[in-house]
Amino acid sequence: MVRCFSATGVLLVVTTGVSSCEGHRPLPFGDGHGDAGIGAATGGGSTGQGGAAGRAGAGGGGSTGQAGAAGRAGAGGGGSTGQAGAGGRAGAGGSTGQGGAGGDSSLCAPTPWPAPPLITDFSDVTVPDGGFQYRIGRRGGLYSYGGATITVSAGALHVTGTITASTNGGAGVYFDDCVDATAFMGFKFTLTGTLGTCDMARLAALFPQDQVSQPGTGHGVCVGVNCYPPGSPYTIATTSVSFASMAGGGAVATVTPAAQARLTGVDFGFHGPFATATGAGGCNVDFTIDIVSFY
Fold it and tell me: Is residue 95 in some structural domain?
């Protein structure tokens, strides 16, 4: 076997059966042994890189080099499909709200007060039953309790009486209907005379919830120990009392708009002082009430 080289040292041919390199030329193409490219393995399954091109064959008449083999696809398998997330639990339904307080069917229906705001100046008082009951027009009547007595004279309501120790007394006006007084702010009136030594004088607004069946109207629905109305202090010099100032009631603690829509009367109350070591207690009253109105 003879290897033939060119003058520059390039291998021209490898041959057998000859003893010299005369007549041989260099190989024009590669030696036919191109390297196969190998694709890079990737986790994401990307396409492998193509094989590197075959190296040029050594000189001589060698055959055409083979193209490098195509790169293998990356080994990385595609990611498995994620499981669907579990559906969220349905939220618990909100509890049903309590209904607003509706009208109490046991109470009288509100009746608007006719204009003007005057309740009575006592010129409209009649005595239809021979003196046992005073009426004011067609709107209601007059009453007293706790040792107080009433008469109508000189166009005013005259209140007199002896109130025993630790006893409540009073006088006032009741309405035949439950009056809607939401258009007004309170009561106005004129007082003269004296409350004597009586204490706890309170002007009160009356409502069915804090009244028993008396007086007169029969609208009262109160049962038990909370049958007393909200009120505000007054003296003989007082000329008005607002609904907003009234407090301290039982079934109706203050004059709310809902309560004010069912007004059944106005009460001038007082109390006989408790007995003490130096006194028997109690008191005497002698005063008049005139021109009672809303304002």
Answer: no
| Statement to judge: residues 169 and 41 lie in one domain | no
pLDDT tens figures, 30-54: 443 434 333 333 334 344 444 444 4
Range of the domain at 50: 1-69
The structural domain count of the chain equals 2
Tens digit of each residue's pLDDT (9 = 90 or more) over 195-251: 999 999 999 999 999 988 655 557 888 988 889 999 999 999 999 999 999 999 999
What is each CA distance from 35 to 51, 74, 93, 231, 287, in whole angstroms?
A: 7, 19, 72, 112, 131
- Here the CATH number for the domain that contains residue 231 is 2.60.120.430
